[in-house]
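=== RUN LOG ===
request id: a7f3
mode: sequence -> structure
chains: 1
length: 423
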Amino acid sequence: MIIYFKTSNYKSINEEVTLNFNAASIGEHTESNVIETDKFSLLKSMMLYGHNASGKSKILEALVYFRWFINNSATEKHSSEEIDVEPFELLQSSSKKPSFFEISFLLGKQRYRYGFEADKKIIHREWLLESKATKEYPVFLRIGQDFEIDFKRFENSEELEKRTRKNALFLSVASQWNVQKAQKIDNWIESIFTVHGLADEKYREYTLDLLKNDRYKQLINKFIQKADLGISSIDVVDVPIKLEDILKQVPDELKGVFKEKFKERSETAVLAIHSKFDDKRKIIGSVPFILDRSESEGTKKYFNLIGLFVKAILEGRLVVIDEFDARLHTLLSKAIIKLFNSQKVKSNAQLLVASHDTALLDRNLLRRDQIYFVEKNEYGATRATSLVEYKPRKDSPFDKNYLEGKYGGIPFIEDLESLIING
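=== RESULT ===
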């Protein structure tokens, strides 16, 4: 489980931004929205709000990049290649400083804190610490190419610092060379689902895999039925791709090439089954429609993400979604949040999303510490503030106060009509 994520000097972020999943000492949804461990009370979900260009996406992009670089830096880069960090460019001093990333998390009962600082050329600093009781112990510390390693805590990592390039992470190298603790951390970070809400189709495979499993097929169908989409059930079929169908779509001069290279194969089609009624409104059968041709964009998005949500809940994984509410009805978005916040569903899964839907600013759904407002200061730098820091009363109308500008994070839009009238 994630405890916090911090970043600074990355894209629109200048000074440090922290997303803190430690539950505040407030008496709201304590039995549902909080995961209790031996030493921590951690939030099950968190939502970022802010107007367009406030930097919500950039905060999530920082976490996505952090994840990607850890999983790939040992294999993707040569010593001469640049690191893909982007410092804050609107302040002269920041553009010359390294970007900073740090995450604190629990693996089983063990707490870790890992982070690094990097510019486009080198890793300036890198650290991994683990906690026992209230004290932290360095597993390894790195400044440039100077390493201090506790080989008892980081077994089988001897000599690996010599294999670590100046533009590669030591944790990634250690994982690649089968250091067990590094692999465990690497695998946990890789397990984080990172989703862009406007490009959800690539996650469909998770739902399709579950549909092909008799154990989960019924569960997926219940998710569809409960969403009130007008679909009675979902099924998948393998549709053969025939040569004659392809030849109808290509020019005559290319038909020979296609005949020579064509290999028989099939594609998976998702069928949305709808009830068919007689004139007295009685069900007399069913009609299958191909999901991608006949259903709404919201229905397709929901279907694409069902498998990911189920997998995250069952395996206790973190899900990060930008443009969470895009193409989803408010009530469906609320249902997904309730799933992660559920007291009945026993899971360590966590949800982090960015949203514009103010209807989700609902005190019956979220605690005050689960809501962050994101805005830019006068220098164009992103900052994020938890609602609990504004100290509103717990019975305050969060959505109304937000739209009135009491928490920041809203756009100040000029009168657009005057542009036409006076233009």
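=== NOTES ===
Residues 349 and 404 are 33 Å apart (CA to CA).
The chain has a mean pLDDT of 88.
=== END ===
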